[in-house]
Structure prediction request, 727 residues.
Amino acid sequence: MGLLVSISLGEGTVPTQIDAVHVGFAGRYKAGLWTPVRVTFQGDKPSAGTLTLTAPDGEGVPSRVSIPCSLPGGNETSVLTYVRFGRAASELAAEFRPGDGASVRKLFATSPGSASFAPALASGRELIVTIGTDSLGAAEAASLSRQQSDQRPVVASLSDASQLPDRWCGYEGIDALVLSASRPERFAGLRANGPQIAALALWVQMGGKLLIAGSRGANELFAAGKPLAPLLPGKFRRNVSLRQSNALEEYSGSKAAVPRLGLGDRLELRAARLESVEGTVEAREGSLTLVVRRSSGFGQLIFVAIDLDEPPVRAWEGRGLFVRRLLDMTGSNQVLDSSENAAVMHYGFDDMAGQLRSALDRFPAVPPVPFSLVVALVVACLFLVGPFDYFFLKKFVGRMVLTWVTLPLVVLGFSAGAFLLAHRLKGDKVHVNQINLVDVDAQTGLLRGTAWANLFSPRADRYDLEFQPNLPEGSEPADRQTSWLGLPGEGLGGMHPKTAALAVWKQAYDFSPGLDAVRGVPIPSWSTRSLTGRWAARTKVALQTELHDQDQVPTGTIASSLAFPLSDCRLCYGGWVYGLGTMKPGETIIIRPSAERRDLKTFLTGRKLIIKEGRELNTPYERSSTEPAYVLHAMMFFEAAGGRQYTGLWNRYQEFVDLSGLLKLGRAIFIARAPSDASAAGSHGARLLRDGQAISGSEGRNLTVYRFVLPVQHGEAGPGERGREEP
Prediction:
C-alpha cells in the first residue's frame, strides 16, 4: 500500500490527491529507456508545485525526475513526464510538493494491487504502438512470428493521439508507430506546428519508424496545414476509387484476395492520392502510389494510401502479411537455439548493447585481479589462521590462549595487504572509456550523436555528470540527454534479473529538468558506472558530395571541409563497400566505376572461402570480444551482417544505431574514424563533464566514428573534379 498525505485546502474542498499513474503506451514499455508517465490528480482547488517521480536505475539505485506543474483543480488533471526504469519489476514513487502545505506522496509497484502498473517488456521484444479502431493489422503480423510467445512482438493500441509524447525521447522504447487516418476525431487537438508533431518528426529523424495509413480522413489530416501533412512523403491531392487489388496482394505475398464487398462483387476501396512523391514506391496500381517508403533523417516514413481498419481491408486474410512487410518484421522470425541460450547465460547479456557495455568496462590502466591470485591469498590466509597458528603456538610459544592475539593480527595483516594490493592495481585516478558515434544527414543537415562511456571511480563518491557535444561552428543548439546505460538480459546486474539484487546505495540522485545531466550519481570505490548520451542538432554538412548511380555503382566526388583528417574511410552503397583510405582536410576523392569494392556482408562478417570444403563460411561472431570498436562495427550494420542469426544477440536496446535500412532505400553511407590521439580524445563527439569540467587525467580508451548519409542521384555522372582518384 502506498503512503498518502493529503493537503488541507479549506473547509468543504477535496484535498489534492495523486490518483493513478499511466506508464508507457497502454501500459506497455521497455526497461532502460525513457518512458512517458502520466500522473493523474484529483482535487477541487488549484495548486502549483513540483512533481517528483522516483524509480530504480540499472544498478537498482533510486533516480529522480522532477518537473514544475500547475494543477487547475475542479476536475481530474494529468501531468506528463518521463521516467527511465532500470528493472522489469520495480517501484515508482510519485510525490507532489506544493508551494505551501504538506506533500502528497503515493507508491506504485509492478506487484499486483490497487496501485500497480505492468512490468516492463524485455529489451529484445518489438513494441509496436498503433492509433486506430483496432491493431491495424499489427496484431496479425505479430502472430505470424515463429518465436516463443514470450519473445513475440507486442502491440499496444492507443485510443487517440492525445496520449502521444511531447518529447522525442519519449518514443525511445517503441520500434514502430502506426497511425490510421480513418477516424480524424482521434487526432483532435493535434496541430501541424504543435509540440507532439514536432517530437514525432524528430523521433523519426533520430532513427524511428512511422507508418501512416488511411484515406477516409485524408482531407482533415493530410491536406496542407493539417496535423499529419508535415509527415507525408508527398502532397495530398484527393481521394480516388481503387478498383483493383492485385498490387496489394502481390506486395503482401498473400494468396487471399481482398474481399469484394461492393455491388456486383466489385471492389469498393478508397485511396489517398499523393503528388510530388519522394521516396521508394514499393507498390502502385497504374499511376496511383499505394505504398511509398522514404528515409527521413536516420529513420523511415512509410505511407499506405488505403485504410487498414476499414472494410474491405479489415476483413482481408492477408492484412497481417501486408502489415508485416510494411514494418519489415523479418527479425521476429529469428529463433534463438540452445547453443545461443547457453551463451547468453554465460555472458549475462542478450543484446549487442550489453556486449558494448562489457567491452567498455575494461580499462588498460586498471588490470583485473587474477582469480588465481585471489585463490592463493585465500588459501594462504586459511593456512596461517589454521595449521600454522596452531603449530606455532603449540611448539614454539607453548601458550594456546595467545591465539586470541595472533588470529586478529593475521586477519588485520591480510586486510591491510589486500587493500594495498588493490590500491596498487586499481590506482587513485578517475578513468573513462568512451565511444562517440556521430551521424550526419547530408540532405537535411541533421546531426545525431551518441556516446557510450564507462566511468571508473577510485573512491566512493558522488558525481555530477553530463555529455557536452562538440558541434561544428554555425550549428543550432543541441537537444541532448544524459543517462545511465542498463545491461539488457537476465545476468547479474541485468535489467531482467531472475533474482532481485540489493542496491548498495539507498539515497536517490537526480536528473536535471531537461534530462541532459545527472546530479549526485553514486559510484562505490574501485567501481564503474555505465553512461550514455544522445543529442541532435542542425549543422553545416562537412562533406560536399555529388554521387550518381550508374548500374548500381556509385560514381562522383566526395570533398571534405573538415579541419582534421579522417582515417579508415569507407563508402557503403547497395550491397557493396568501397575502401577509400585516409581523407585529408580539404581533399576531394573521385570515385569511378572501376573502384575496387567488396561485398558488404562479406566485409562485415569476415566471410572466407574454404578451398578444401569448396564453400564459403562466415567467420563466427565473437560474443566474448572486449574490443569496443569490434562490437560497434557489428551494431552499425546489424541487419546487413545477418542480424541475430549471425551474432546470436538482439540489437533492440540501441537499435537506432543500425543504418542497414537506409542502404535499402538507396542512400550511400560514408564511414570514417576521427583522430584518436590523446589531445583530441572526445573533441570530435562529446566530452563527459564532471561538475561542468572535462574529466582530466583519464587514461581510458576513446574512439570516435563518423557516418555521413549521402544522397545518390540516378543518371550519368557529371565531369570529374580534381582530387585524389579512386582507381
Notes: The mean pLDDT is 86. The longest strand covers residues 446-457. Residues 555 and 591 are 5 Å apart (CA to CA). DSSP finds 13 helices and 37 strands in the chain.
